[in-house]
C-alpha cells in the first residue's frame, strides 16, 4: 500500500521575506496550470518602521489588503490590522468555495494563533481538504498543530522541493488531487 501524501506543506528555515518570494514564484509558475487561492505577504515599503507587516495580496484577484497600522517613523511598536486580515481571509474563503486545487497562505502567526486574521482561511482550506502551502511562525507552532494536526511536511524555501511535493499530490492515485483520509 502506498504511503499517504502530506497535503499540507510548511516552509521553514528561512526569513519570512524569502518564504514570500518563493510563494510568489510558485504562484507565477503554477497559475497557468492549476486553480490557486490564497494570499502572499508584501512589505509596506516604509522606511524606519519596527513593524514589517504590510499587505496581503490575493493570488486570485490581485487585490491588496492592508494588515498594518502605521504608527509613524521611529515607532518601536507593531500594530497589526486585524480588520484587513479578516477581509483578506473572507476573500480567500470565497475563492476556496468557488473551487481551487491549492491554497497558498502567507503565514500562520500571531493573529491566526488567536483565532483571528487568516484563521478562517486556514480552517476553510483544511475543511475542504485541499492542499495547503504556508509558513508558520515558530512562536505559534503549538497553536498551528492544534489546528492542522501533525500531518504536514516541512520543506525549505526551495522551488524544486516544493514542486516535488506538489507533484506527489498531483500524481496520487487517480491522477488528480485526492482528498486525504
Features:
181 residues; alpha/beta; two-stranded antiparallel ribbon; 6 helices; 20% strand
**Structural class of the helix and strand makeup?**
alpha/beta
CATH superfamily: P-loop containing nucleotide triphosphate hydrolases
Strand content: 15-25%
Count of helix runs:
6
Overall strand count: 9
| Name of the CATH first level | Alpha Beta
- Average pLDDT works out at 84
Summed up, the domain count is: 1
State the major sheet. 7 strands, mixed
Q: What is the first-to-last residue Cα distance?
A: 14 Å
Largest beta sheet: what is the strand line-up? 4-3-2-7-8-1-9
Whole-angstrom Rg: 16 Å
Helix content: 25-40%
CATH topology value: Rossmann fold
The low-confidence parts are 174-181
CATH architecture label? 3-Layer(aba) Sandwich
What is the chain-wise order of helices and strands? EHEEEEEHEHHEHEH
The rough form would be described as globular
Task: Walk me through the structure.
There is one protein chain. With 181 residues, this protein is an alpha/beta fold. The chain has a single domain, classed as Rossmann fold, CATH 3.40.50. Helix content is 36%, strand content 20%. The protein is built from 6 helices and 9 strands; from the N terminus they run βαβββββαβααβαβα. The protein has a 7-stranded mixed sheet with strand order 4-3-2-7-8-1-9, with helices on both faces. A two-stranded antiparallel sheet has the order 5-6. β3 and β4 form a beta hairpin. It starts with 7 loop residues before the first strand and ends in an 11-residue tail after the last helix.
